[in-house]
């Protein structure tokens, strides 16, 4: 069943059922036990799929620490089935597709004539090709990048002077890492399941962390350009520093994508995303209320009396935000500033009394009504996500598995050459398809099972047909039992009616029999009367 879910179907354009369900956002299908097992098999690939035991987890951890050197000795791999154990090992599936249950790559091609060392080398390679290893290496690389970027902005991001160089090696390494990650994202974008450009854009940007990645890349290169273009003065250099600082904030927030793999933490990210949508609606209401109070209170108490409060009454953007928006915004957190102090200094003034009344209604509306409304909305969203925790997490697991399936098992800058090679192949196949109308690269890495022999497809069709027939038979049988159960109440309620009907039928039958007997007796009486009438004339004739 897992193979059927992952195999390519010509009727659907050579894509799998799982890909169709994921693109259609069908979370119920993706969370089915068959799809969950298939994703688990893809995740561990040639490793043994059940790694829930502590011994297996410890072996994986030691394998990560040793960079895979001890993995062939400690980690448990998939085993051959008993049916094929004594047969000549042959490849069953194409190597550029999903081939987790094919044991051929663990033995062939032969690297050396020593079978033990040959198997060790293939197990070492397949350990690094497994998705847990890619995930671990990516986490280490990303943590190193965050620490390096943070160190650069804190201590080594300065304008060039006579005593300091124009750029430090830490900043150069940061630029290299960001460029490698950009090429990697471009590779992931081009290798998407959609065939059209707009389809790839839609499937890429519908995920929140991919949107964050795009914004982070744009801000980084804008800050990098400004870092060299406006390095003549410290004031102009601060523009690049501010943009880089905001970019670093996004990179740190993007690291939350790594907790998707944790079952009890991943769905909470979905809850946060839904809460952000509610918060956007709430911010519009808060902005209207804040501006209403800020403009009204300043028009009564502050701007008409600049000699009393020392307010800047210049009509510009900075003055409006500094004197109207900022102070009123912090009222939500209980920070009143000098608002009440200034009003209490003139308790008998009409504008002070009116502003006090307005402030009381503003605090009542914002801090009690709107804040509690926001809490209720967040609680409702969390309850909705909590009810569908497993469904959401399984769908996130698909997205995570799909991403790491195409990710290279290397650290930068080696991964840069890997991604550039595959991007070159994609570009070459695209140009070839445009010029000669030939098919795309037939050996490009794809997220589906492709059998080498047609007999495998025939086996799949037979299994699918038998399963469909059994399912239809069970459905018909279940519907028949349901209909019989539904008729139980009707039968029980009509028992008395049937009994009465049978009794009336028996009574009518007995009455009919009585009528038949009466009719027979009447007929006998008629015969006797006729015989008597026939006898009387014969007695009268002699007297005449």
TrEMBL record:
Basic and acidic residues composition-biased segments: 498-512
Specify the domain of life of the species encoding this protein: Eukaryota
Q: What membrane topology is annotated for this entry?
A: Multi-pass membrane protein
* Cellular component annotations (GO), alphabetically ordered: plasma membrane
Where does the chain cross the membrane? 58-75, 135-155, 167-188, 208-230, 251-273, 279-296, 357-378, 410-428
Where's it mainly located?
membrane
Q: Where is this region: Disordered?
A: 481-512
Q: Where is the Ion transport domain?
A: 140-389
Q: Cross-referenced InterPro entries, in alphabetical order?
A: Ion_trans_dom, TRPM
Biological processes annotated in GO: metal ion transport
Key words of the record: Membrane, Transmembrane, Transmembrane helix
Is Transmembrane a UniProt keyword of this protein?
yes
Question: Localized where?
Answer: Membrane
For molecular function, the Gene Ontology terms on record are: monoatomic cation channel activity
Pfam families to which the protein is assigned, alphabetical: Ion_trans (PF00520)
Q: What is this protein called?
A: Ion transport domain-containing protein
Q: Which organism is it from?
A: Adineta steineri
């Amino acid at each position: 069943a897992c193979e059927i879910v992952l195999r390519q179907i010509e009727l659907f354009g050579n894509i799998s059922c799982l890909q169709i369900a994921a693109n259609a956002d069908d979370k119920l299908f993706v969370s089915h036990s068959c799809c969950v097992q298939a994703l688990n098999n893809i995740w561990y690939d040639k490793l043994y799929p059940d790694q829930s035991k502590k011994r297996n987890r410890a072996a994986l951890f030691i394998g990560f620490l040793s960079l895979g050197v001890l993995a062939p000795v400690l980690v448990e791999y998939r085993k051959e089935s008993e049916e094929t154990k004594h047969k000549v090992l042959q490849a069953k599936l194409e190597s550029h597709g999903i081939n987790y249950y094919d044991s051929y790559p663990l033995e062939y091609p032969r690297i050396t004539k020593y079978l033990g060392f040959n198997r060790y080398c293939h197990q070492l390679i397949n350990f690094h090709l497994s998705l847990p290893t890619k995930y671990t290496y990516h986490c280490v690389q990303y943590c190193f990048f965050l620490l390096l970027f943070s160190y650069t902005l804190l201590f080594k991001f300065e304008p060039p002077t006579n005593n300091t160089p124009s750029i430090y090696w830490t900043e150069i390494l940061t630029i290299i890492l960001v460029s490698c990650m950009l090429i990697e994202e471009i590779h992931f974008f081009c290798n998407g399941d959609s065939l059209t450009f707009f389809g790839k854009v839609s499937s890429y940007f519908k995920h929140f962390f991919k949107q964050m990645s795009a914004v982070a890349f744009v801000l980084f290169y804008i800050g990098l350009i400004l870092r060299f273009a406006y390095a003549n003065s410290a004031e102009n250099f601060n523009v690049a520093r501010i943009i880089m600082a905001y970019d670093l904030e996004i990179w740190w927030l993007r690291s939350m994508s790594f907790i998707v793999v944790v079952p009890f933490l991943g769905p909470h990210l979905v809850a946060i995303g839904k809460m952000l949508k509610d918060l956007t609606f709430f911010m519009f209401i808060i902005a209207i209320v804040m501006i209403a109070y800020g403009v009204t209170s300043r028009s009564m108490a502050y701007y008409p009396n600049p000699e009393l409060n020392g307010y800047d009454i210049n009509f510009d953007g900075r003055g409006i935000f500094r004197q109207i928006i900022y102070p009123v915004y912090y009222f939500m957190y209980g920070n009143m500033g000098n608002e009440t102090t200034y009003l209490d200094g003139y308790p008998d003034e009409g504008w002070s009394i009116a502003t006090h009344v307005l402030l009381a209604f503003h605090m009542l509306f914002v801090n009690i009504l709107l804040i509690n409304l926001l809490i209720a909305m967040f609680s409702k969203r969390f309850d909705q996500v909590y009810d569908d925790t497993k469904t959401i997490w399984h769908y996130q697991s698909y997205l995570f598995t799909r991403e790491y399936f195409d990710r290279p098992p290397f650290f930068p800058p080696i991964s840069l050459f890997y991604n550039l090679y595959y991007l070159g192949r994609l570009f070459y196949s695209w140009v070839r398809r445009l010029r000669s109308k030939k098919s795309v690269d037939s050996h490009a890495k794809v997220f589906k099972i492709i059998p080498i022999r047609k007999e495998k497809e025939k086996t799949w069709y037979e299994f699918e047909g038998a399963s469909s027939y059994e399912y239809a038979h069970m459905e018909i049988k279940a519907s028949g039992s349901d209909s019989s159960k539904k008729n139980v109440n009707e039968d029980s309620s009509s028992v008395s009616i049937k009994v009465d009907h049978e009794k009336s039928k028996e009574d009518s039958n007995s009455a009919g029999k009585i009528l038949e007997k009466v009719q027979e007796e009447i007929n006998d009486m008629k015969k006797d009367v006729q015989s008597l009438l026939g006898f009387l004339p014969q007695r009268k004739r002699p007297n005449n």
